[in-house]
Amino acid sequence: MSAPRPLTSRIAHDYPVVAPVLGVVVLLLTWGRDLGAVPVAVVAVVLVTVVLAAVHHAEVIAHRVGEPFGSLVLAVAVTVIEVGLILTLMVSGGDKTATLARDTVFAAAMITMNGIVGLSLVAGALRHGVPRFNAEGAGSALATVLSVATLSLVLPNFTTSSPGAQFSGPQLAFAAVGSAALWLIFVLTQTGRHREFFLPVTDDLDPPGLGPDLQDELAAAEEAGTPTRRRALVSLWLLLLALVAVVGLAKVESPAIEDGVAAAGFPQSFVGVVIALVVLLPETLASVRAARRNLMQTSLNLAYGSAMASIGLTVPAIAVASIWLEGPLVLGLGPVQMVLLLLTAVVSVLTLVPGRATRLEGAVHLTLFAAFVFLSINP
């Protein structure tokens, strides 16, 4: 008779299954109610737990379908959360949410291209020296991200059909179709004919092609075995349940977030930053974990895939929703934001061209991320 598992082991084993269900239960109990400080804190804890469960189920699915499909699954899942949050807040916010989509999408771009990439590079460099990745795959991902970002977030400042930083109806439709098309073409390229550009790069100096840490990691993964089809399907349903819970609980938390931002004296636009930080927590954890396993290409797939999906899927969803949403839709970035986007583009190109990077490049990206957060608080 085997000994019972320790309590911590049982919690670690069961929480991915329990957390999504718990999240939905808490959502049903709190939806549409005015919550005090204690219930808000409880909802926040449950929200973080559900996010971690979503990461687990996305990684199970990723293990089943392989890379780069796994990164794509998590990127799309995170974007579904983001789109759901933006739409639910815009429906109830009126004119004061005119810039919410822009602020959230731009925050997602800065968090992924600077925050997640920077953390991953530093984590990988501290453990493995000089992380390597595929410059062709990472470069094409960056080019697509910058194209959809410029098309959707920069051009509205220079068009003349509508006043201010807004698109006219036909222009918004074109930006939506163009962004979605670029995202779809990239996905077909990443998962089809040129899939090898997006697979992890191994160390050529090692005869087997793999460093000792990566050998241990792969051996452990093989010992654990690829998840069965049934387990992957269960994880898919639990992931969908977790996404519903995250979107709903974040909506429940949104008044507290807005009140906290106002109480701190921060600009209203910082709400979009907070939303993006919450939504991209799964990507951040998964990317840093991959970097520590010397899978830097996987980290970049996650980062740029999320940035691309955030823009390429959010803008079309907002364009469709604008048919029934009232109030203006401001997509054009401000001057400071455009400078940060331009600087991020230049630094990212210089980081990716060699196909390898050090912790210096990671520190540069993290500094740009810190500048973005600071200027969001103190514009």
TrEMBL record:
Keywords: Membrane, Transmembrane, Transmembrane helix
GO molecular function: potassium:proton antiporter activity; sodium:proton antiporter activity
Keyword Transmembrane helix among UniProt keywords: yes
Domain Sodium/calcium exchanger membrane region: 40-191, 235-377
Name of a matching Pfam family: Na_Ca_ex
InterPro entries: Alkaline_pH_Ca-Antiporter, NaCa_Exmemb, NCX_ion-bd_dom_sf
Tagged with keyword Transferase: no
Record's bilayer topology term: Multi-pass membrane protein
Gene Ontology cellular-component terms listed: plasma membrane
Parts of the chain that traverse the membrane: 12-31, 37-57, 69-93, 105-126, 138-159, 171-189, 232-250, 262-281, 302-325, 331-353, 360-377
Classification lineage: Bacteria, Bacillati, Actinomycetota, Actinomycetes, Propionibacteriales
Subcellular location(s) per record: Membrane
Protein name: Ionic transporter y4hA
